[in-house]
Write a structure and sequence with these properties.
Mean pLDDT: 85
Largest sheet: 5 strands, mixed
Distance between the termini: 48 Å
Number of helices: 11
Order of helices and strands: HHHEEHEHHEHEEEHEEEEHEHEEH
Radius of gyration: 23 Å
Number of strands: 14
CATH topology of the largest domain: D-Maltodextrin-Binding Protein, domain 2
Length: 298
Amino acid sequence: MDNRFGEMETFVRAVSEGSFSAAGRALGMTPSAVSRVVSRLEDRLQTRLLVRSTRALLPTPEGEAYVAEAREILDRLSEMEARMAQGAAPRGPLRVSATVGFGAQAVLPLVPRFLEMHPGIELDLTLTDGVIDLWQERVDLAIRSGTLRDSSLKARRVARMRRVVVGSPDYLARRGVPRVPADLERHDCLRYNFRSAGWQFRDPATDARVIQPVNGSFSGSDGTILRQVCLAGKGLMWTGDIVVAEDISCGRLVEVLADWQPPELEEIHAVFAGHPHLASRIRAFVDFLSESFGRGAN
């Protein structure tokens, strides 16, 4: 009897890793053995699943459809076996994407503890502020803020954060402390180069929302870049409090305009494919984030 689950696992790994050699190393097989499994699968299905080149493996449309179904089947199989085995630990590859600022300052410091708790999970973390397609990028879990647009995906809130304006003690000593949002017109404000809207505030006297246009001598593509420039005393930054919590507690940065911050909190979600049975390795990471950020999902 042929091992169709083994073929599925081999094909999914080949697509995920992007080469027969890498898939073989992960599965303990030779590249030629991986290639034979994929060829046997294509022969049985009577369709081409992969386009092979000297640089990479790219799935055909039929291959994309097959790998999506195969991942769901394998995840369900893993869940079933985990439920059957007493004390079975989550295991397997876990591909996670997070925004650069939140990922670098809030998620990355937690990674060592997560790996200690779940030694069977192979965590692959990518930081990007770009919009990604979970299926196309072969990502199991994305950590994002804002509204969920893809109805085929599910989201679980793992944290809440408020927006704060911060500056270094050196910068504030040289340029003064802003008391109202209009004071920002006289300050260097560090901005994202893809976001043109002003910084948002709430008038503490009238409860009215205020959008303050800002300008400055520097803009960057992600929060990590802006934070470094802010720490160097080159301007004020508008960011999530979780991203700069340690900087504030250590005195490296100082919060200003605290009375003017919007009352609503920005929600951070773990976004994943809407399978009926969520793989245990994905659930383990989502639970871990929620607990680490003070059960922000509640």
